[in-house]
Structure formats: C-alpha cells, structure tokens
Design goal:
The complex is a heterodimer of chains A (401) and B (245).
Chain A lengths: L5 E2 L6 H27 L14 H16 L1 H7 L10 H21 L7 H6 L6 H24 L7 H24 L12 H27 L6 H31 L4 H10 L2 H23 L7 H28 L9 E5 L13 H24 L3 E2 L4 H4 L4
Antiparallel strand pairs in A: 1-3
Chain B lengths: L5 H26 L19 E6 L9 H10 L14 E8 L5 E7 L7 H5 L5 E3 L5 E3 L9 H5 L6 E2 L18 E2 L5 H6 L5 H5 L5 E5 L6 H9 L14 E4 L2
Parallel strand pairs in B: 1-9
Antiparallel strand pairs in B: 1-8, 2-3, 4-5, 6-7
C-alpha cells in the first residue's frame, strides 16, 4: 500500500464547476417542489389518502437502501481483508454517507410537517420500527464518519478494522430495519412478511454496488486516473451475484405468496393483471433489472467492455427503481381486505378497488433533488478529501491482491 | 398552591352540590335516561370504561349516509380538492355476498382497537390510545409521515392535504397531520354519552356505549346477539363491533 497515493481533485475546472452547477439546478428544483408542497399541502402531489407514500418514497428508500450497499466495497476490504478493494474504500464510505443524506432529505422534505423534524428527533416511540430507523440512520452517519476518519488519518488507522466491522454490522441492521418498515405492516397483503428484511439487505448490496461502480467510473475517467480491469471485473462479477440473489429473494417471496390462497389476489395483481405494476415487474424488474444486467456482466463478449459493465449498472438501478415502485406503490394500490373474500364491497373512500396514482412533477423534482444532493456531496468531498488513488492500474493492484 | 380555607372548600362543595341537585331535578328526564356517566373534568381518563360502538347492519338503511354528514358537520370536515384527498372519518361501505347475493351497507370508521397498529408504528407517539380505549392523534407532535395510514387495516385515517380554516374549537385539525374518527371524544368527555353518527342515525343502527360496563346497553346487546369485529383475524380487539352479517 505504500506506493499508493491518494489525492483530492483540483475542483477548479469549468467541467467540475459545471457539474456542481448541474446538480445545483436539481437541488433548486427540489427546493421549489418542497416549498410548494409545504405551502399548498399534499393535494398538489399525486399522493392521496389511498396511496399515502408515493414517488418521493421510491426515491428516498432507493437512496437509503443503496447507501448501506455502497459501503460494500469498504466492508470487503476492512472486514474480509480483501486488499484489492482497499484503495476504493474511502470513496465507498463517502458515497454511503452521501446517499443516505440524499435519501433522508427527500423523506424529511416530504413530511406533512417537515418543520417538526425536531419532534421526530426528540420524541421516540420505541415500539415503532420507524423510530428505530431514525436512530439507525443517525448512527450510520456517526459510525461511517468515524470509519472514514480511520481511513483518512494515519494516526488512527489501526482502528480501521474495528470501525469497518462496526459499520458493516450497523449497515446490516439498518437495511433490516428499512425492510421491516414494510415487513411489520400487517394491514396490507403485499407486506406483512419477514422476508422483506433480508430482501432489502440484498437489494442494498445490488443497488449500492451499481451506484458505486458508476460513480467510480466517472470519478476515475473525469479526473484522468487509470482504472485497471482487474478490480472492475471483480466488481462486475460481484454485481452479477447480487442481481441473481435479488432475483432469488423475489422469486421466493412470490412463490410463498402464490402458495397461500388468501394472497392469490395480490399476486395476480402484481404478476398478471395489475397494469403498470405488472409491466414494471416483468419489464422493469425482471428484464431490465435482472436478465439484461446478468447477460451484460456474464456473457464473455460484452463483459469485456467497460461500457457494457456501466450499462449493466445503469440497468440495475432502473430495475431497482421499478422493483421499489412495485413494492411501495403497487403494494398500496391493491385494495386492503376489509372483509373476507366471500364479500365484494365499495365505498366513497375507494374500498375494494385498485387505487389510482400518477406521480406529480413535484414529487419527481423532490426525488431527483435527493439524487442530486448525494452526487453533489460526493463531488464536493472529492475536492476537499483525498479519496481517490492516483492510479489503480492492474500492475499496481495485482501485486497487492 | 391551594390557598383556599376549609370554609371556602365547604362553601364550594355546598354550592356545587346545590347547583348539581337543581340541575339534576330540572334535567333529569332528559339526561338520566342515558346509561353513560359523565367524567368530571378534573378526573383523569381511566380504563374503567372502554368506549365503543355497536353497528347493526340490518338497521343501516340502504342509501342513507346521515352518519357521514353528521360526522362531517360535527367535526368540521368539508369537501376540498376531491374525494381522493378529502378526509373521511366515516364512510358507508356497500357490501354484497358473492355466493348468495345478499347485500347490505355499513358505516366504517376508526375501529378504536385495543392493540392499534397505528399506535405501534407511529415514530413520535403522536398516535396514542387513551385509557378508555379511544384512539387519537396528537396533532401537535404528528409529523405527517403517514406510517399510521400504511399500518391501519381499516383505511380509517386521512391526511389533511390542504390549509384549513374555520376549524371547530373543540376539534383541532391542521394541514400536514393525520386524523381519524375520535369517537367524538369532545362529546364523550362532555358527558353527552353518544357520538354525532349515533345521534344522527334515524334507524338507531349505531349504538355508543361502554364495553366494560356489563350493564350497558351495548354490552347487553353484544351478550345477547354477539358481535363481529372487522379483520378479527388480526387480533386487534376492536372497540367497534358489527351485528347483522
């Protein structure tokens, strides 16, 4: 490791400033959306009393889940001792913190009373998994922050393994908590499953690594730093494993539901006749988010090209968004079973019918603002911290791995 | 803090007692028919009572929604930006048996569960259950996260989607917070012994009462005819019971 040199970026080039400005535009748009939603109330969004969590939650949960997954690379280096990944650990930790910040920003700014954030920080109902998540998110910032310190400061470097292990355990608990937000809901048929907790852990591995790879490609390419195939190939193989594992969990979840007669309705809705949700499941999650990335990373010919690997990561992200849209919105759109299946029923409050939802521009602006905030933080951190190695060519890393 | 002399206290009790006796004599025919006792304002809510409703679907007249309009009127709910976002604390659900074709309708509101999922999931504790079984939202610490709306098996809760004006003084409501049927808590605490929906029902299909009082009409009717809980499989022990289907 001695001949590995980490440097910050100059951050004065027009391209860099333009990139920050580009993210800034999205941040501005998100701010406008937030102010408008707070001022007018949530009726201007697509969300309503049936679909209570909408597009902002798809973005927020995607970013929060991806945050813990983005820490994978650092964890593999610190906890499992794979030195090949160590040069990328700093970027991994910063990206993790940045993604969590972006996701939480969206979640908080969507609250009906965002001005009462201090209430959420000071009043805790410890039976609520949501309250536990608030503690887990804050703890993640603290622990990953300390972990990053052990990586940046040679005087405390000896604690890196301890900090890395703590961060690894914490991130597993965090994603378990995020999955349990849905897993603990007894009211709706799409949720109410212990499987959602480990499923979210696997989703985090996959989403987080996909985002990490894209950020890594961009950071190395745009700063003119060599990035060898060795580390890229290891990462793309890992991405393939995570995508396959995601598919496995999804398959087990749906097969289990298909075995239960009482859940045939929700399964038929998602898999066969749910309109947009069925389309998003098969085309988004399965074809775009699973099959195509697997082909791109495992077929010998395309997997040699960095473009194909980058494309696979983009598809994993798009498929992941589709997956979360189906889980979050589809799960709410399917009617709550108020009465036994023997009865059919209707009301002015949309009982017994599929709830309609179309995301408003405000929700999308807010969600994209969260993504922009995450990337803005990473870009800015690259300027103020020494996060990237100068050179990650194969000849340099191969001797150490 | 108590600067009153024993004589003051004596005079206060005597005066209070005399007024109460006079009021009792005057109003007795109207008031004492009610089986529900008013709780003195300085006495905390206790679990001696478990307030609830009994709904007889056989009496719920087809096409009638007077309970809904009475609730809206009592609590100041007005149409705003359409049915998808307007709060509905009580709604009429029309039901049909797929196998027999039997049809009926019934009002559905917050079921005031003994183990309310909305209270379990609320991160700040804004959703809470009073000792007497009434499930409420503390609008001062509700952050509008809507997790309770995700958790409620009865879809009983609404978010206030817009700025409100002219709220009722006894019913604080506000943009960005979640709300639902309060079992007319202001009327219960006032000792009215009923709710707006129960009062308004021309068929007396809705009966308010104390489930803990074995002598109350609601308990007697439940003992006699039984009652059904919506989503009884969830084991939430609802305070609202149904008869007739």
């Amino acid at each position: 490791m001695k001949n590995l040199r980490y440097t910050s970026i100059d951050g004065n080039s027009p391209a860099y400033l333009g990139l920050l400005g580009f993210f800034g535009l999205f941040l501005l748009a998100a701010f406008v959306a937030f102010v408008n939603m707070e001022h007018e109330g949530h009726w201007i969004t697509g969300m309503n009393n049936q679909i209570v969590w909408g597009m902002p939650h798809v973005f927020a949960i995607f970013l929060i889940v991806a945050a813990s997954g983005a820490l994978n690379v650092a964890s593999i280096a610190s906890v499992f001792g794979k030195k090949l990944y160590k040069p990328l650990s700093r970027l991994s930790a910063v990206l993790a913190v940045a993604l969590l910040a972006g996701g939480l920003a969206v979640l908080v700014l969507d609250l009906g009373r965002a001005d009462r954030l201090i209430v959420a920080m000071t009043y805790y109902n410890f039976k609520s998994i949501f309250a536990w998540n608030i503690i887990l998110y804050n703890g993640f910032f603290l622990i990953v922050g300390l972990y990053l310190w052990t990586m940046l400061d040679w005087q405390v470097e000896k604690y890196a393994r301890v900090a890395g292990t703590a961060a690894f355990i914490w991130r597993l608990i965090l994603t378990t908590g995020t999955g349990s937000i849905f897993g603990f809901l007894v009211s709706r048929q799409a949720y109410d499953s212990a499987l959602l907790a480990p499923m979210f852990v696997i989703l985090s591995f996959s989403f987080g690594l996909a985002i990490f790879m894209l950020v890594m490609f961009a950071a190395f390419k745009w700063t003119g730093r060599p990035l060898g195939d060795l580390v890229v190939n290891r990462l793309k193989n890992l991405l393939g494993v995570f995508v396959a594992a995601t598919f496995y969990f999804s398959a087990v979840y749906h097969l289990t539901n298909l075995y239960m007669t009482k859940k045939h309705g929700i399964e038929s809705f998602i898999l066969l006749d749910g309109g947009i949700y069925t389309q998003l499941f098969w085309w988004g999650q399965i074809v775009i988010g699973t099959l195509l990335p697997l082909l791109l990373v495992y077929c010998p010919r395309p997997s040699k090209h960095r473009f194909a690997i980058g494309l696979a990561a983009v598809l994993v992200i798009l498929g992941g968004m589709a997956n979360l849209y189906v889980i979050i919105i589809g799960g709410q759109a399917y009617p709550i079973p108020l009465l036994p299946a023997e009865f059919e029923y209707s009301s002015t409050f949309f009982d017994g019918v599929v709830a309609g939802y179309s995301p408003s521009k405000w929700e999308i602006m807010l969600g994209l603002g969260g993504v922009a905030l995450s990337l803005f933080i990473v870009a800015f951190a690259l300027k103020i911290f020494r996060l990237l190695p100068d050179d990650l060519s194969d000849n340099l890393v191969s001797s150490k791995s | 803090m108590n600067s009153e002399t024993p004589i003051d206290q004596y005079r206060r009790r005597l005066l209070g007692g005399s007024v109460a006796a006079l009021a009792g004599l005057t109003l007795a025919p109207g008031v004492f028919l009610q089986t529900v006792q008013a709780r003195p304002a300085d006495e905390p809510v206790s679990d001696r009572n478990r307030w609830g409703l009994l709904i007889d679907t056989n009496k719920c007249a087809d096409g009638c929604n007077r309970c809904v309009t009475a609730c809206n009127e009592e609590n100041g709910l007005k149409p705003m930006h359409g049915p998808t976002t307007d709060p509905q604390w009580i709604r009429i659900v029309k039901v049909k048996s797929k196998s027999t074709g039997y049809q009926f309708q019934m009002p559905v509101m917050c079921q005031h569960c003994e183990h309310p999922p909305c209270v379990d999931v609320c991160p700040t504790g804004a959703s809470f259950k009073r000792a007497d079984g009434i499930v409420l939202v503390d609008r001062h610490i509700c952050i509008g996260c809507r997790y309770c709306m995700m958790a409620c098996p009865y879809k009983a809760r609404s978010l206030v989607h817009e700025t409100l004006t002219d709220q009722k003084p006894y019913m604080p409501r506000g943009k960005g917070t979640v709300e639902s049927c309060t079992l007319c808590v202001h009327k219960v605490d006032r000792g009215d012994g009923t709710t707006a929906c129960a009062e308004a029902c021309p068929e007396q299909a809705i009966l308010f009462g104390d489930l803990n009082d074995s002598g109350s009409e609601i308990s007697r009717r439940l003992e006699q005819y039984g009652g059904r809980q919506l989503r009884a499989d969830l084991g939430l022990n609802t305070g609202v019971r149904y008869q007739g289907f």
